[in-house]
Every structure is written in structure tokens, then in C-alpha cells.
Amino acid sequence: MCLQALPQGDGVPGQVSGRLTAEILQRSIAGERIHEAEALHLFEMAALPDLSLAAMAWRNWHNDPSKVSYVVDRNVNYTDICNVYCTFCAFYHRPGDSRGYVLTREQLQQKAEETLALGGSGFLLQGGVNPDLPWDYYLNLIRFLHHDLGIWVHGFSPVEIQMMAKLSGQSLLKTLGDLRDAGLGSIPGGGAEILVERIRTRIAPLKGGPDRWLEVMDAAHEVGFRTTGTMMYGIGETLAERVEHFRVLREQQDRANARNNGGGHTAFAAWPFQSGNTVWAGKIPKPTDVEYLRTISIARIYLDNFTHMQSSWVTMGRKIGQLALHYGCDDMGSLMLEENVVSATGTCYSVNRDEMNRMIRGAGFEPWQRDNVYGLAEMG
């Protein structure tokens, strides 16, 4: 990669970069991997325009500079009953609560037919950790969606898969193999939050530490699954802890790439915590738009072994979603035919296909519709 030289200045955030900052970014633009201390320095000192320059260098090295992708799918929460009780979640109901639900096959079929009729490819399928559902439920659910209804299943967060392994009495590898054989196509990265022990203990103590999430993803990559890496930030972590999150994801992707079996993270997505209707409402500052752009651009620079970076327009809104395409993102994520978890906090954004195409073109790129693992979508 080769770009113009960065300006040198006094290192005040939001102004031109200082000499050390410029040197780090120049090495990154030249294709050199940066380290944790350097990423933290960028968080603290780099000017936003210079972060954009370096992030776009990596974005364009991995992807066609002229194009931005999106997927037409549906976030389907098959149940909202959960016994993990994450303090940041406004969606779940406790076991035994009459307001909780498990979707019927008729409801799932209706959602599948609507998705396919709109040119969609699949479901992002997640639910709570529901203690009332047996192991066979999950295998039958996947078979029904994939084989009977023709839906690609991008499904289940690591905490759900940990529960399935316990229900099945099998190893993670055998459990994941059974899910794959039933028709599970790929695995989303939900539930990572911040992969630091202190933060996970604070916000979701029953979920386990970062090793629990990483263990499932390592096993999934060993089986050959393609997955996504995620981060929900702005819930009391330090900038150094954000960098630590990046570090463990990059190391995991290095392990996946070394296996060379097709497994690994396809993309990274980050979004700020939405505190509405949670116990954290009014207790922690809401991350700003600038903070979001700094976070995703540094992620793009640091996560040099990730091919794709998603813009979180669902939490940030359309304008910042578009702007993120100039801070390292090459993908607008899902059209969101349905979304329940973020909207439960009071944050609600949605678009149709024409609006998505206009958003991407308005940002200066050519849109293309992908499937759930970044292949060209088959249009019916």
C-alpha cells in the first residue's frame, strides 16, 4: 500500500497528528502490523482525518475500493427467555415469565417466506439461553429452516452454543459438527461485548470470562465455520481494554488462518452500548459519533487479518453509517428486515433495499448485495 505522507503536528486529538503518531500511521499504511501500545497511542492522540487515511488504506487493500456490500436478511430471535441476565440487555424475559415466548414453526415459516420474497438470503438466528429447550430442538430448528424452508442459518451466539454442548453431553467440536451437519451455515459473534475479564464480570457475570467466548469461536474455526468478530463498547471499559479486545480477536484470526481449512472470522463489527431501558440508563455516558469513528478506524488498522469491516448504521443512524464507509468500513451489514434486541433499548433505524442502495451511492460507492458469508447473493 502507498499513500501520501501524513502531516506532522503537536499531537492534539482532532488536529494534525504528532510525529510519533504520523510514524505509526505511515508504517501501517505501508502494510506493517501495529502493536497494542501503538493502537492505544492512536486512540489517545491521532487526528480523525489521519485515522481515516490509514483505515481506508487497509480497507482498500482487502476490498474493491469502489464497492460496498450489504446483506438482505432478518434478525430472528427464536426465543426471548434467558437465564444469563445480562445487565445491558433490555430484551430478555426470565424463565417462567408469562411474557416470554418461543416462536412456533408457523411463525418461523411466515418470516422465512417474507424474507425470501424480498430477495433475502437467510436468518441471523439468536435467542436467549432458554433452559426449557432440549438439544434436539436446535437440530430440528436448523433442519426446518435450512432444508425445508431454504434459509441460510447464520446462527447462535457462543453462550448459546456452550449451553447446547452441555445439553448434548458432547464436546464443543462434536456439538458444532452436529449443528453443521443439521444445516447451520455460519456463526455470528454476538455476546463478545468486551473480551476482558473485568468488564464481563461487571456486566454479565453468568456469561463467563473472555475465554468462554473465544473457546467456542476457536472450536468453530477448527470445524471450518465462518464467523464474525464483534465488540460492544462504551460500557465502562478503558481504551486499553478496547485494544485488548482487538488483540485477542487478531490472535484468534491468526490461529484460524494458520489452519487454512476455511474457518475464521469473515468480518468485524463494533457498535456502542445502547443503555435505554436497562439498569445502566443515565449512569454511563453515551459514546459520541466521533468516538465511534475513532474506534472503527483503529479497529480497521489493527485488525489487519480481517477482510471486512461492517458499519453499524443500525445503532448510529444513516448519516454516520455512511460516514463510516470513509473510516475503514466496506460493508453496511444487514438491511434489517427485522430487529428486536437493539430496538428494545429505544434505538430504531431501518431502511429498504432502495434506501440502502441510495445510502451507499450517496457515500460515493457502488452497492452490491452479498450473502451471509460475503459471496455474491443469488438473486431469484
Give the topology.
Elements: H1 19-29, H2 36-45, H3 48-62, E1 67-71, E2 73-77, H4 105-117, E3 122-126, H5 135-148, E4 152-155, H6 158-168, H7 172-182, E5 184-186, H8 197-203, H9 210-223, E6 226-233, H10 239-259, E7 264-272, H11 289-302, E8 308-310, H12 313-316, H13 318-323, E9 331-334, H14 353-362, E10 366-370
Parallel strand pairs: 1-9, 1-10, 2-3, 3-4, 4-5, 6-7, 7-8
Helix pairs in contact: 1-3, 2-10, 2-11, 3-11, 6-7, 6-9, 7-9, 9-10
Describe the structure concisely for a colleague.
With 380 residues, the protein is α/β, with parallel strands linked by helices.
How would you describe what is shown here?
42% of the residues lie in helices and 13% in strands. With 380 residues, the chain is of the alpha/beta class. It folds into 2 domains: 1-62, no CATH class; 66-370, TIM Barrel, CATH 3.20.20. Helix 1 (19-29) packs parallel to helix 3 (48-62), helix 2 (36-45) packs antiparallel against helix 11 (289-302) and helix 3 packs across helix 11 (289-302). The chain is globular and about 60 Å long. Residues 1-16 and 339-348 have low confidence and may be disordered.
